[in-house]
Write a structure and sequence with these properties.
The relative contact order is 0.10. The chain has an eight-stranded mixed β-sheet, with helices on both faces. A four-stranded mixed β-sheet has the order 2-1-11-10, with helices on both faces. It is built from 16 helices and 25 strands. The protein has three domains: 247 residues, 3-Layer(aba) Sandwich (Rossmann fold), CATH 3.40.50; 169 residues, Rossmann fold (3-Layer(aba) Sandwich); 97 residues, ANL, C-terminal domain (GMP Synthetase, Chain A, domain 3). The two termini are 32 Å apart. By secondary structure, it is of the alpha/beta class.
Length: 554
């Protein structure tokens, strides 16, 4: 089979593969949906609904507030937020002002947040007065070049009754705002006429989002995603849904700061004029209750989420009759899990594939079949696939042989923020994005990932880089050598496990090292165990041999 593929004939998605997507900015995409669906619900947050017109007005007030502060074209505005209405207003508001959004995970440590604030040149950071967020943001404000914080209240997005209860019974979860001119209340920022100055946006060149990812070394890199990258990917995902014109109620439990949710939950639903039921974090009981309450039609998620829903006792009391499709990404979907979920819910569950550099989605299995378990399906419309020789990426892989998956399409990033060296490594000379994953294209045009060149561990949809954990281990005086591997995990897909040898004269258990290590790591990075060994495998030239250890560990 030729390594440059075309799906013009054997294409199972309900649209043409060979098509184009006109330039479109995110503010214009939102405005078009407001014009069509102004009074329709766009967001449902814990039972409080916000119409398209209300959300657009809120975003306009954010945009005007940012412009009054002097922000606009060339400014980077950070979002350190979970799934709350403030996120949507800040996201589209910053874009209306002409600024670039930078997403920051609420799971970040102070050091991680500071490093990415500095790297991106973020000037203003949106967060909440939650005890889990504000203290971290305040330390970053003092320890970096960050100029100001915009702080919202969770209670402000809740229905009146729930807002009152939150204020009465959850005071411990709220951090006090300091008397600091650099800290501005969200309500003060948006206290304006909601008429921002018009900004000229070139969708194909203006960067809408800097989305951080990691490399094989774990060094964070900011993928520059243009307005066109993001709106094209939203339109590509929408086009493969055979029922995209039907009533659209999506459950937003994936975090918006993650590129998968940013495209599949937020931008795609706004494009389609649908409604997003937002949960600030995934909780299986709350998710099942939301499906019952809102008659959810679509549920994008990661395998660990579907497993948690299956394991919850409320599953049997949940009405899934409205649920049409679930898209799984972020980690491989075990075939047994897919079969159990489909049997329990009656919904279609399809596996897809994407990466930060592709705005979220490259390929999926067809919603209405034929689904081929264990594959990532076929590419989205206008997405070109190529397999490169694993040893020499300047050449195509031999016909019929596995090769490194390379991608071209309107959703592929402009490049990395201030990292031309990384651009050289990640793109071929003729502009194909190298994914680092090894794939084959099977009969019928289905793509199967069979290996990966990179050492990244996929933990419940999050990327974990062994070198980051290994660097922490080497800080312990007893650790001589360390290798971290991804171990198969029934719930999270993979989980990090560390293997170490000790310096002479030290005696320390793996349990003690685990207890020392994990508090220094993000929740998704924490190892399931540290195994102390007498020796670790090495290559002929004396380097630690991760591949040999992986084979040995099984």
């Amino acid at each position: 089979m030729n390594t440059r593929f075309s799906w013009s004939i054997d294409y199972h998605h309900p649209t043409d593969w060979d098509q184009s997507f006109a330039p479109l900015s995110l503010p214009d995409m939102l405005a078009a949906s407001v014009a069509r669906k102004g009074d329709a619900p766009m967001l449902d947050f814990m039972g409080r609904q916000f119409s398209y017109a209300e959300v657009a007005q809120g975003a306009a007030r954010v945009a005007r507030g940012l412009q009054i502060l002097g922000l606009g074209k060339g400014s980077r505005v950070g979002l350190f937020l979970p799934n709350v209405p403030h996120y949507v207003a800040a996201y589209y508001g910053a874009l209306m002002a002409g600024a670039t959004v930078v997403n920051f995970s609420p799971l970040y440590t102070i050091a991680e947040l500071e490093a990415q604030v500095e790297d991106s040149g973020t000037d203003t950071l949106f967060t909440l007065s939650a005890a889990a967020l504000l203290p971290t943001a305040l330390k970053v404000l003092d320890g970096s070049s960050l100029g100001r914080l915009i702080v919202g209240s969770v209670a402000g997005g809740l229905p009146k009754t729930k807002s009152l209860l939150y204020r009465l019974f959850k005071r411990r979860e709220v951090a006090p705002l300091p008397d600091d001119p650099r800290v501005i209340r969200f309500s003060a920022l948006t206290d304006n006429d909601g008429r921002p100055e018009p900004v000229a946006i070139d969708p194909e060149t203006d960067v809408a989002l800097i989305q951080y990812t990691g490399g094989t070394t774990g060094t964070p890199k900011g993928a520059k995603l243009t307005h066109q990258n993001l709106t094209a990917n939203a339109r590509q995902v929408n086009a493969i849904d055979p029922d995209h014109e039907a009533e659209d109620r999506i459950l937003g439990v994936l975090p918006f700061f993650h590129v998968f949710a940013n495209t599949c939950v937020l931008n795609r639903t706004v494009l389609n004029g649908g409604s997003i039921t937002m949960l600030p974090r995934f909780d299986a009981k709350q998710a099942l209750a939301a499906i019952n309450r809102t008659k959810t039609t679509a549920l994008p998620g990661v395998p660990t989420m579907y497993q948690a829903l299956l394991d919850h006792p409320d599953l049997a009391r949940t009405d899934f009759s409205s649920l049409r499709v679930c898209i799984s990404g972020g980690a491989p979907m075990p075939a047994e899990l897919r079969e159990k979920f489909v049997a329990a819910t009656g919904a279609s569950l399809v596996e897809g594939y994407g990466l930060t550099e592709s705005s979220g989605v490259v390929a999926t299995n067809p919603y209405n079949g034929p689904v081929r378990p264990g594959t990532i399906g076929q590419p989205l419309p206008a997405t070109h696939i190529r397999l490169l020789d694993k040893e020499d990426p300047t050449k195509d892989a031999a016909d019929g042989e596995p090769g490194e998956l390379a991608v071209k399409g309107p959703q592929i990033m402009q490049g990395y923020w201030n990292r031309p060296d990384a651009d050289t490594d990640s793109f071929t000379a003729d502009g194909w994005l190298r994914t680092g994953d090894v794939a084959v294209v099977e009969e019928g045009g289905y793509i199967r990932i069979v290996d990966r060149l990179k050492d990244m561990i996929a933990v419940g949809g999050f990327k974990v880089y062994p070198s980051v954990i290994e660097a922490h281990l080497y800080e312990h005086p007893a650790v001589k050598e360390a290798i971290v591997l991804g171990i198969p995990d029934a719930y999270r897909g993979e989980a990090p496990k560390a293997f170490v040898t000790l310096e002479e004269g030290f005696e320390v258990t793996g349990e003690a090292l685990t207890a020392w290590l994990n508090p220094q790591l993000g929740k998704h990075e924490r190892v399931i165990a540290v195994e102390v060994r007498d020796a670790l495998p090495k290559t002929m030239i004396g380097k630690l041999d991760r591949k040999a250890l992986r084979a040995e560990a099984g």
